[in-house]
Specification:
The chain is mostly beta strands and 368 residues long. The protein has helices at residues 8-14, 18-29, 62-65, 69-74, 195-200, 247-250, 329-333, and strands at residues 76-77, 80-83, 89-105, 108-115, 123-127, 131-138, 147-148, 172-177, 184-189, 204-210, 219-228, 238-241, 253-256, 261-267, 274-279, 284-288, 297-299, 301-305, 309-314, 320-325, 337-343. Bound molecules: copper (II) ion. Copper (II) ion binds next to loops.
Length: 368
C-alpha cells in the first residue's frame, strides 16, 4: 500500500488526519471551565503536535450526509400504524437499500451501502405483539436482504436461498412478522454474501420492541458501535458511535441532571472480535438484549460480540461532561470517543440538538 493511503497504523502513528487530530486536540487540549491554580511550565504538555485547544480543524458536513449524529441517536421510526380486523396493531415500515457516499470523519468519505440513506439504518420501533410488515426495495447496485433478529418463520429470515432469498437490484419483497417478539433491543442487517462485506458497508440498524407493560419514562439514545475499513484491507481505520468519528465529542448528547437516561447499545462492528462501551463518573444497570425488566448487572463497562446488544439505564447526578467510549483504547483514539453533557435545565428545544424531550412512550401505547 502506498504511503499516502489512509491506514490504521499510519493514523495512530501520525494523527495525520486533520479531523481526528482535531478531535484528539479537543479531548486532550481543552481547558477546564473553572479556575484552577496555575501549573508551573515544565515543558510537558506543550509543543506536542495536536495538543491545540482548538478543535475546529474540520467538521463533517452533516447536511451533505443527510443526517446528524443527534438524529441518529434519537430518531425512531414507528411505521405506518393501522388496526387489523382482530384488533391487533399493524406497523408497516419502508426500507430501501441505497448506495451512498457518507462522510465519517472530516474529509474522510466512505462508499456506503445504506438502508434509507443512513448508517446505521433507521431505528424501527414497535410494541410487543404488533404485526410487522417491512416493505423492502433494493435500489442498490448489489443483491441485498434484511435479516431481523427476533422470532419469525424461516421464510421471513432474510437469508440467501430461503423464502425470497437475496433481493436483486430493482426488486422488492415484504418481510412479515406475525408478532413483534421478544420485547427488547434487536439488530437487523443484510445477510447477502459475502456477509462481512455487506454488513461492514453499512447495511445494519436496530429495532426496539417495547414491552406491553412499558418501561419507565426516560431520555433515550440509540448507539450503534461501528467501524469503517476505508482502504478495504479488512482492518478498520475509523471507529465510532453511530458512524461519525468523535461525533458526540464535538456535540455531546445532552441530558438533564437526575433524569433517567436509557441507552440502547448494539455492536455491529465488522473485522474486530469485540467492541465495548464504558462511561466515566457513573455506573449503569445492564439489561442484556433488553428481554427482561430486571437488570443483569450494575457496572460501568460492557463488552459485546458483533450482534450483541444491551439496554443501559443511568442517571447523572452532577452537571458537566461525562466521557463514554470503547475501552479498547485504540478504538477510542480512532474515533469511538463521546460525551454526555448533563445540565440542571436539561436540553433546550432551541439548541442544535433539537427537541427537549425524547421520551419512550409511543403512539398506540398507554401513557401517551
Ligand atoms: Cu447486502
Amino acid at each position: 500500500m502506498s504511503d499516502t493511503s489512509l491506514s490504521r497504523r499510519g493514523l495512530l502513528r501520525t494523527g495525520a488526519l486533520s479531523g481526528l487530530a482535531g478531535g484528539l486536540a479537543f479531548l486532550l487540549g481543552r481547558r477546564p471551565a473553572q479556575a484552577q491554580e496555575p501549573v508551573p511550565a515544565t515543558g510537558h504538555g506543550t509543543g506536542h503536535p495536536g495538543h491545540s485547544a482548538n478543535h475546529a480543524m474540520g467538521v463533517v458536513d452533516h447536511a451533505r450526509n443527510g443526517f446528524t449524529p443527534y438524529e441518529l441517536a434519537t430518531e425512531f421510526d414507528y411505521g405506518k400504524v393501522s388496526t387489523l380486523p382482530d384488533g391487533r396493531t399493524l406497523r408497516e415500515f419502508k426500507m430501501n437499500a441505497v448506495d451512498k457516499e457518507i462522510e465519517i470523519a472530516p474529509g474522510v468519505f466512505f462508499p456506503a451501502w445504506t438502508y434509507n440513506g443512513r448508517v446505521p439504518g433507521p431505528t424501527l420501533r414497535a410494541n410487543e405483539g404488533d404485526m410487522i410488515r417491512v416493505h423492502f426495495g433494493n435500489g442498490s447496485s448489489h443483491p441485498h436482504t434484511i435479516h431481523f433478529h427476533g422470532l419469525h418463520r424461516p421464510e421471513m429470515d432474510g437469508v440467501p436461498g430461503i423464502g425470497a432469498g437475496e433481493i436483486l437490484p430493482g426488486q422488492r419483497t415484504t418481510y412479515e412478522f406475525e408478532a413483534a417478539v421478544p420485547f427488547g433491543f434487536h439488530p437487523y442487517h443484510c445477510h447477502a454474501l459475502p456477509l462481512k462485506r455487506h454488513i461492514h458497508k453499512g447495511l445494519y440498524g436496530s429495532w426496539i420492541i417495547d414491552p406491553k407493560v412499558g418501561r419507565p419514562a426516560a431520555r433515550e439514545f440509540v448507539i450503534i458501535m461501528n467501524a469503517f475499513d476505508t482502504n478495504f484491507d479488512n482492518e478498520n481505520e475509523i471507529y465510532s458511535a453511530n458512524s461519525i468519528a468523535f461525533g458526540y465529542a464535538n456535540e455531546p448528547l445532552q441530558v438533564k441532571v437526575g433524569e433517567l437516561v436509557r441507552v440502547y447499545v448494539a455492536n455491529l462492528t465488522e473485522f474486530d472480535l469485540i467492541n465495548s462501551f464504558h462511561v466515566h463518573g457513573n455506573f449503569f444497570n445492564v439489561f442484556r438484549t433488553g428481554t427482561k425488566l430486571t437488570p443483569d448487572d450494575y457496572t460501568d463497562t460492557i463488552m459485546m460480540c458483533q450482534g450483541e446488544r444491551s439496554i443501559l439505564e443511568m442517571r447523572f447526578d452532577y452537571p458537566g461532561k461525562y466521557m463514554f467510549h470503547a475501552h479498547q483504547s485504540e478504538f477510542a483514539e480512532l474515533g469511538w470517543m463521546s460525551f454526555f453533557e448533563a445540565t440542571e435545565e436539561g436540553p433546550q428545544a432551541q439548541t442544535a440538538q433539537g427537541p427537549a424531550l425524547a421520551y419512550c412512550t409511543i403512539p398506540g401505547q398507554g401513557g401517551n
